[in-house]
Amino acid sequence: MSELQKVLVVEDSPTTRRQITDILEGAGYEVISAEDGEAALELVREHHPELVVLDIVLPKKNGYQVCRNIKADPELAIKVMMLTAKDQEKDRIWGQRQGADVYLSKPVDADELVKAVNDMVSTPSRIN
Fold first, then answer.
1. If pLDDT is split at 50, 70 and 90, which confidence band does 126 have?
2. Mind listing the domains of the chain with CATH numbers?
3. What is the pTM of this model?
4. Where would I find the Response regulatory domain in this sequence (predicted)?
5. Of 54, 7, 50, 48, whose CA–CA distance to 35 is shortest?
6. How far is it, in rounded angstroms, from Cα 65 to Cα 68?
7. CA dihedral defined by 54, 120, 90, 19, rounded to 10 degrees?
């Protein structure tokens, strides 16, 4: 039996974190989760997920800081999807400048989320 692909969900809202986790587990992913930016970085280094689904507004370190930290470490080579309520074009541009591979706005349709995650984990990580 093959090992499930691992996704880290970083979301401070317990309800939203559970919803995203349920959607991704239902799609066949192993999901680990964090409720703040510092815990997210610890889990990234410990578990080396294929993808991080990252909110922006987080305690301790915001999503932009977490994304920059992940992308600054060439040993990680982990893709980052920002999934956030910040839906202004300036937020999207700033997220991409921080290294986000994909930027989706909440609320997101379950099918759209699964498709985006499937697309991201099926393509090689980019080298920054």
1. very low
2. 6-121 (3.40.50.2300)
3. 0.90
4. 6-121
5. 54
6. 5
7. -40
